[in-house]
């Protein structure tokens, strides 16, 4: 209960004056939410306004938290996801009730599959109107529970900050992921005495979740490495999530282990590093005697584990115990932080008479020969002068265009499948893609988040024309907030990844059903919204156009017309469905 203090001053004549009551300091639910966000280190929210949530804005202004307002709630959720990936801090999106929250569902689901820590706050009708049919009332928590690590209603104003901190604790338990809170309007708007509200202190309400793994398992892996002649390691997204770049690099170099990278793990080792491999992965998985998978589940990207040799010893390291051994048996499973585990294994291996590094020289040379052969085979297409433009030429030019500090984002189907074979980020944390949910439309919101979080870095985003169409109107948000980036649309007027599958299944006459788009001039769209735009039809013009986009200092779209009848190998193999 709020305490009041009564004072009874005396007049000069010794006559008592009437008692005065001090008014307790009051705080609203929205301001409590903002205080909890500030305590977690959140410095920006991505949002689309609604009457249910505006008191949070008022609190954010007082706490110095920026408010970036977008044109669609899906964009807000994707931007929160992207911000978490770039910074390592949780992202936050705030949306209104009903359709505001349902519009954000896709962004939350994408963050779940990508293991990205973000908090979505949704509005809700007043508790006093519960089950009365209030405006935009839906069972948000029931809807969000299957796609979050934590979903709850804030039941009282006094609990607002407390439950926000509870949601953040859950975001970082095990493998990271999203949380959802709905806050009824009367809970958010009400004011309570400050001393009645629990406001967790920054740095004092959640524990470290970093685990170095079972010491016995660490020693066993060190022993396996000491005896392996042909090991390889796949460094997945959790290597970046755990900020384990230094540990992974030291592991590969000290123990002479060839490293492959996928997802956000791309860029862990720079291109040109003798332990950096990309094009020989299938060969390595078929011929290795020890395969170490770090921070990557055995999902469709790994053929559910079937792409690993049955003769090899397989070790899996992951933050989530539920991932280890799922879909494929493993010889050794270690649950822990990628950086701590790899550091421990390197240390355990280094203390041995032989860690096996010297005898692996021939294995690395064998893989490098396979790598070089694959590169030379594809190089003519990367340098092709064909018209229409070969997609390999486009992604080659993009790869050559990237600097050491260019953050690369891929948003699309077939065109981004091409880029995955060619584009090599030159630094850790400089690759972003949707992740295993395969969500199209992440490009603009990821670019927004990346440029906001790292204004000094260049952001380069390759879109498929279909992907850009889903969230492209928030290009205007990029202009409005002065967030320049270099955008490229690989335009074939088709959803080509689906088109190829249809033709193979139903024949050419039905290959254009439901997957053909108009010939849209995205360069003109960019200029209409205040950005920079160019159209490219000649492959020789790609690089100059990219340079002009960089120099413009504006959000940009280079509309590159690519051959609609050329498909990426992954598309032709339909590997995503196998």
TrEMBL record:
PROSITE patterns membership: TPP_ENZYMES (PS00187)
Which CDD domains does the entry link to?
A: TPP_BZL_OCoD_HPCL (cd02004), TPP_PYR_POX_like (cd07035)
Q: Which SUPFAM superfamilies match?
A: DHS-like NAD/FAD-binding domain, Thiamin diphosphate-binding fold (THDP-binding)
Q: Which family does it belong to?
A: Belongs to the TPP enzyme family.
Q: List GO molecular-function terms, semicolon-separated.
A: acetolactate synthase activity
Report the residue ranges that make up the Thiamine pyrophosphate enzyme TPP-binding domain in this protein: 411-560
Residue ranges for the region (Disordered) are 1-21
Q: What is its EC number?
A: 2.2.1.6
**InterPro entries in the record:** DHS-like_NAD/FAD-binding_dom, THDP-binding, Thiamin_PyroP_enz_cen_dom, Thiamin_PyroP_enz_TPP-bd_dom, TPP-bd_CS, TPP_enz, TPP_enzyme_TPP-bd
Q: Which residues are in the Thiamine pyrophosphate enzyme central domain?
A: 218-344
The record's listing under Pfam families reads: TPP_enzyme_C, TPP_enzyme_M, TPP_enzyme_N
Name its species. Answer: Amycolatopsis magusensis
Its needed co-factors are: Mg(2+); thiamine diphosphate
Occurrences of domain Thiamine pyrophosphate enzyme N-terminal TPP-binding (ranges): 28-137
Q: What is this protein called?
A: Acetolactate synthase-1/2/3 large subunit
Is Metal-binding a UniProt keyword of this protein?
Answer: yes
UniProt keyword list: Metal-binding, Thiamine pyrophosphate, Transferase
List the top taxonomic levels of the source: Bacteria, Bacillati, Actinomycetota, Actinomycetes, Pseudonocardiales
Q: Does the keyword Metal-binding apply?
A: yes
Top-rank taxon, per record: Bacteria
């Amino acid at each position: 209960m709020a305490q009041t203090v009564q004072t009874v001053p005396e007049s000069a004549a010794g006559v008592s004056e009437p008692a005065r009551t001090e008014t307790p300091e009051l705080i609203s639910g929205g301001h409590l939410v903002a205080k909890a966000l500030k305590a977690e280190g959140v410095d920006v929210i991505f949002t689309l306004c609604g009457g249910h949530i505006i008191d949070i804005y008022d609190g954010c202004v007082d706490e110095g938290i920026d408010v970036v307002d977008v044109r669609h709630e899906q964009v807000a959720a994707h931007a929160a996801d992207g911000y978490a990936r770039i910074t390592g801090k949780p992202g936050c999106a705030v949306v209104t009730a009903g359709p505001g929250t349902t519009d954000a569902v896709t962004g939350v689901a994408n963050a779940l599959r990508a293991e990205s820590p973000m908090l979505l706050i949704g509005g809700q009708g007043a508790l006093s109107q519960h089950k009365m049919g209030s405006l935009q009332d839906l069972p948000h928590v029931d809807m969000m529970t299957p796609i979050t690590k934590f979903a709850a209603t804030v039941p009282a104003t006094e609990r607002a900050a407390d439950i926000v901190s509870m949601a953040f604790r859950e975001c970082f338990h095990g493998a990271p992921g999203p949380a959802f809170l709905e806050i009824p309007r009367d809970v958010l708007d009400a004011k309570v005495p400050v001393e009645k509200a629990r406001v967790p202190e920054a740095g004092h309400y959640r524990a470290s979740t970093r685990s170095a793994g079972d010491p016995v398992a660490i020693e066993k892996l060190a022993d396996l490495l000491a005896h392996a002649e042909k090991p390889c390691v796949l460094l997945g997204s959790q290597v970046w999530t755990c900020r384990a770049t230094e540990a992974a690099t030291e592991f590969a170099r000290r123990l002479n282990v060839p490293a492959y990278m996928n997802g956000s793990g791309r860029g862990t080792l720079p291109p040109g590093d003798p332990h950096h491999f990309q094009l020989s992965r299938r060969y390595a998985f078929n011929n290795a005697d020890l395969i170490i998978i770090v921070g990557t589940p055995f999902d469709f990207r790994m053929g559910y584990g079937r792409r690993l040799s049955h003769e090899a010893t397989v070790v899996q390291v992951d933050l989530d115990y539920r991932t280890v051994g799922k879909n494929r048996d493993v010889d050794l499973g270690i649950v822990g932080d990628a950086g701590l585990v790899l550091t421990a294994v390197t240390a355990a291996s280094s203390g041995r008479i032989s860690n096996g590094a010297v005898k692996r020289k021939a294995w690395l040379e064998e893989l490098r020969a396979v790598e070089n052969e694959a590169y030379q085979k594809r190089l003519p297409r990367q340098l092709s002068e064909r018209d229409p433009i070969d997609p390999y030429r486009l992604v080659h030019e993009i790869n050559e265009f990237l600097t050491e500090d260019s953050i690369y984002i891929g948003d699309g189907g077939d065109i981004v499948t091409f880029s995955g074979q060619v584009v090599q980020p030159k630094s850790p944390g400089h690759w972003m893609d949707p992740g295993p949910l395969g969500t199209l439309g992440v490009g603009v919101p990821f670019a927004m988040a990346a440029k906001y979080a790292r204004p000094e870095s260049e952001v380069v985003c390759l879109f498929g024309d279909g992907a850009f169409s889903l969230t492209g109107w928030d290009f205007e948000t990029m202009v409005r907030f002065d967030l320049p980036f270099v955008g490229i649309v690989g335009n074939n007027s088709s959803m080509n990844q689906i088109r190829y599958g249809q033709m193979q299944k139903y024949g050419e006459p039905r290959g254009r059903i439901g997957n053909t788009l108009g010939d849209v001039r995205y360069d003109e769209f960019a200029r209409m919204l205040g950005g920079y735009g160019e159209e490219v039809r000649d492959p020789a013009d790609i690089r100059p156009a990219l340079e002009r986009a960089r120099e413009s200092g504006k959000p940009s779209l280079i509309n590159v017309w690519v051959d609609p009848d050329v498909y990426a190998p992954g598309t032709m193999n339909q590997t995503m469905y196998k």
